[in-house]
Amino acid sequence: MRHRLVGELMTSAVVHVRPETGFKDIVRLLAEHDITSVPVLDQEDRPVGLVSEADLLLNEAAQEDPSGLMLTPRLESRERTRSRATTAAGLMTSPVVCARPEWTVVEAARLMQGKRLKRLPVVDEAGRLVGIVSRSDLLRVFLRQDRAIREEIRRDVLRSTLDIDPDTLDVRVHDGFVTLAGTVDHPGQVPVVERLCRSVDGVVGVTGRLDHRRAGTAVLDQTR
Questions:
Q1: pTM of the model
Q2: Which of 58, 78, 101, 159 lies in the 20 to 30 Å Cα band around 90?
Q3: Number of domains in the chain
Q4: 37 and 83 within one domain
């Protein structure tokens, strides 16, 4: 079995800036490329930070209300310093959390979820930027064709991993939902088959109605 890798899903042509890039130039790049953040690279193309729309908006948030109707926001000292910055070096959020091309979709998704990130710069073994991967990139695995998911389950899950003849089970996939029916040799295989099918990239859910030959003819009807 094989999960899709970050290197297969990432965007390789990455819009980026240097530490000395000015405020307006950053805003212009975001608008021109319809993106919400840019990595900041040093002279060796290693990410040293990330400038997002939120970072840029600190400038506006820190302004006093000319009418005097709104109180000036209380910003932490670092935020106040960043609100006055005019280049990427002062505006950026640092250090930046990065991914590697050989990471699986699962690894990248867990890091994004844990750190509450929308995207990850992708770096090589030397720490140089080679791409960027976003939440929407990872979600592309759910656009896989049902036919491809079914074939992977039959070939990789049943035959290669579990040594089960795929023709002994009825595997159906519709809109990413997998339905399993048939008979396996051991009762312990039932949850294993369902768990491995659920881990296939692009699978939304698994419904299993599997019999087993040993210890009677117990039937498990479970939905994952």
A1: 0.74
A2: 101
A3: 2
A4: yes
